[in-house]
Predict the 3D structure of the following.
Amino acid sequence: MSATTVAVLDYGSGNLHSATRALARTGAQVEVTSDPEVALAADGLVVPGVGAFDACMRGLRGVGGEKIIGTRLAGGRPVLGICVGMQILFEKGVEHGIETEGCGEWPGTVDRLDAPVLPHMGWNTVEAAKDSVLFAGMDDDTRFYFVHTYAAQTWELPEPERIAPPRLTWAEHGSRFLAAVENGPLSATQFHPEKSGDAGAVLLRNWVGSL
């Protein structure tokens, strides 16, 4: 039986090396690529991201990444966004007064956290969604590693009538924000699973196992 294939999208943003190593430890066959054919053919696509929303979107559009994501999702093919790779899935981001259009897979705006200390950097617990696939087998006090100043702080997609509603996982730093979303084939985490030790390894293994 062949190994599950995972493509890590290279669009000039993201901690590609550590994400690739962490994914490889799950037993998946991992390839870093900006080739649309490779990204579309893989069993799973990971979209990492660090830095500014605007810079990430420019890089993503430079390789046609938003089209790759959209095409995969239209065919029910799994995608996992990480950190800013989660943020760019929303309709728009606002940083330093600059509004940037995102991929628009989810409605809503990514904006600055209302917290006394920013960035939110370090370990934090999450309030995992009921029946979550990503957080299966984890305790409520499990901690994940965050590095961010901006986040999606509301969820604006109405619950569907005929299919399972999205699984929303929340965390808090000054204000409450989305730590993870599982919405059909599209999943994302605001934290870095590849930097979250054993907990992150379990989450990535859960995701790869669902492909």
Remarks:
- Helices lie at 16-24, 36-41, 53-62, 65-74, 84-87, 197-209.
- The chain has one domain: 5-209.
